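Handout, page 2. Input:
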Amino acid sequence: MKKTVDALGLGIAPVDFFVTMRSFPLPGKKIDGIPQSSLIAGGGPIPNSLCTFSKLGGRASLIAPFGDDRWAKFAREEPDKFGVRHNLCVIRKNCSSARAFAWIEQQSGNRTIVLDMPQRIFIHPRDFKLSCLPIPKLIHLDGRHLKAAVKLAHWGKKVDARVMLDIGSVRNKVDELFPYLDFLICADDYARHYFNTRSIKKAASGFKKIGIPEVVVTCGTNGSFGIDSFNNQHRQKAFKIKAVDTTGAGDAFHGGYLFGLLKGWDLERKMKFASATAALKCLKPEARTGIPSYRQTIAFIKKHRKFHD
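Output:
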């Protein structure tokens, strides 16, 4: 019998290097970091989301490119902590790993990230055989490896998988994926830029008109706005917490949303659960340390009553 999995993700998987400082430095200036604040961890939007999804109770597999240096071994082993399978990943010989360098501002919890990704750290359509993949209920993509993502999404429709795209910023053109999407969750910067509008509602409606059944636009502490396949709309306020590090908050949102899709929840419940998952993640440093369990998330939703206006 063909193997199955709840969620199959394709995306980049860098090693994240973190350092916390009291405030971001001015250009050309030198500052000290907070003593003993440096951290090294596995990262990447899709791996982070799948780790969240797995900790919440889903079964997940990852397709990602790695180098063959000492950091690659570290990055491949990180998903093991959450039960995310990575046997489908691709190893590039004589190639260094992708690395992301994150600066965290202590007072606000905001972060600035620079990605250093070698050109060979890339997934091509030839790098995986569809016959070797487990049959997924959900497919999660970040749009970086576009041709490979299209191949996976096209196959996904044939095996009745539902396809979700995470797009956080304006990078490469991903329109080729739109016909295969069941769900788009994108950051407000991308949505506003795509439709040249300041209105999140207009942007979400624009993606609906393109033909994407369900669209959610995330806006950080300004919450999120979504429209489902029945044209039901929901605006979710962001939970108000004292953030330690916002790195991976969007990834946690996506992981929580994926879990809601697995459970068959309606739009409002999915968005509230995803928002709570993201808020809880921000209470601890780096992208995965603060990922909550299902019980922790539900308890937080029941007790927490503070929201950003």
